[in-house]
Amino acid sequence: MQRIDTDVVIVGAGAAGLTAATELVKAGRDVVVLEARDRVGGRLWTGDVDGAMLEIGGQWVSPDQDALIETLDELGLETYPRYRDGVNVYIGPGGELKKFEGDIFPVPPATEQEIVTLIEKLDALVAEIDPEEPWAHPQAKDLDEISFARWLETQTDDDEARENVGMFIAGAMLTKPAHAFSALQALLMAASAGSFSNLVDADFILDRRVVGGLQLVPLGLAERLGDRVRLGQPVRTLRWSIEPTDGADGASAVVAVTDELEVHARQAILAIPPVLVNRISYEPPLPRRQHQLHQHLSMGFVIKVHAVYDTPFWREQGLSGTAFSPWELVHEAYDNSNHGDPRGTLVGFVADEAADGVFQLSAEERKAAILESMSHYYGEQAKHPVVYYESDWGSEEWTRGAYAASFDMGGLARYGADLRTPVGPIRFACSDMAGKGYQHVDGAIRMGRLVAAQILEAEPVEATAR
Q: Comparing C-alpha atoms, which of 43, 27, 23 is closest to residue 35?
């Protein structure tokens, strides 16, 4: 087994791990990044499927994502706006299709007022929430002990209003049923975007895309790091101690062991989703608190559906491609055509319990059911794509869900403050732990910068000179 000595070993070559590595290298540190997959990027993945470029993972950039935008500029990457000309489509509880413009769905006036009132109430609560410390809110415990679905029921008896407001958190973001997570978790999701109003504004939250795909961010960072990044190296064991124990200069406090390598370092960063932390064996075991908190976190479940057509036919109908319905199998969909591509691409989402249901079908039956739902928005032509692909992150061994991990009822107030707490020489960083930018690549970059700064502050560079 090959031994490598370094200053910091980083587990995970997603945006968080590669950002941390970049910042540490800029400051003169030696780093080694160990990635289990045969590619970099984690939940950012741009693939070629039957000749079509598809962003299998995350893809959008919103104007408040300063850390991501700075990184795009640093790497020289260009963006382009999501197509949104034309009218949007909404399907109500009775199956009636309505076209609309603006943010509020075409619902009865009383329901529209209820939706506006709910958004105003949520915005007021979100304004009181620090996304870095949502558990510090005076009512955090109470808000964390009531499900978001139940909270909505306490605010209005209008079912259509509740379903529409709930969809933006449950289906569109946390990808769990609204009864499965707390009101506090919902408020954190909204606070991470600046407000609930931002979260429900598709023109804001899904503003732009990167020419060539968002995976170009981790690919660009990895290229600069060169052979510091080792692919196909899942970490099996992490041996650690609070005090340095061994090493070429007697300074190692942590050893990361893969099937081929032993990486000895002063510090370690676990830049992986929290649900993967327990895939590693620790010697000695992690503290009890870590074991507890990780039992209260789970990933959401969503299928991202890509359908490519010879032309963007919906534009000829005056449609923007944006479509919503809490009552449809595909609860939201958008024009996802690539920059400079004459073909048209639609992207749709099937989340939480609906995704459970379609995975009980055969692949052909599932495809037919999903395309049938999309045809309710766009017409018969939607049933006949030239390329069709389902991004199923729940089956990815090194992710196990999407888009991010969230706490069960009561878990955020109880364990949230411990999520980023270092354990000896081990630090944690990923988008699942971010405040601002939670579950987005912007949050991953912020977390990578944060842990790198903490390491640099804790150990001046002269202390690590080899």
A: 43
Binding-site residues from annotation for FAD: 35-36, 235
Residue 464: pLDDT band by 50, 70, 90 thresholds? Answer: very low
Binding-site entries for substrate: 349
Write down the domain spans for the chain: 2-43+215-286+423-464, 45-58+81-103+201-210+301-402, 105-197
Residue range 246-277, pLDDT digits in tens: 544 446 799 999 999 999 999 999 999 999 99
pLDDT tens, residue by residue, 299-344: 999 999 999 999 999 999 999 999 999 999 999 999 999 999 999 9
| Rounded-to-integer distance, Cα 7 and Cα 268, Å | 9
Select the CATH number that applies to the domain covering 2-43+215-286+423-464 from these four: 3.50.50.60, 3.60.15.10, 3.20.20.450, 1.20.1730.10. Answer: 3.50.50.60
Is residue 250 left, alpha or beta, with left meaning phi > 0 and alpha meaning psi from -120 to 50? left
410: left (phi > 0), else alpha (psi -120 to 50), else beta?
left
HSE-up of residue 161 (Cα within 13 Å, Cβ side): 20
Residue 365 CB partners (closer than 8 Å, separation 6+): none
Name the token pair of 197: 């109003």
Residue stretches of the annotated binding site:
35-36, 235, 349
User: Model pTM greater than 0.85?
Assistant: yes
* Tokens describing residue 307: 């359908």
Give, in order, the Cα–Cα distances in Å from 93 to each of 150, 160, 317, 438.
Answer: 20, 7, 23, 31
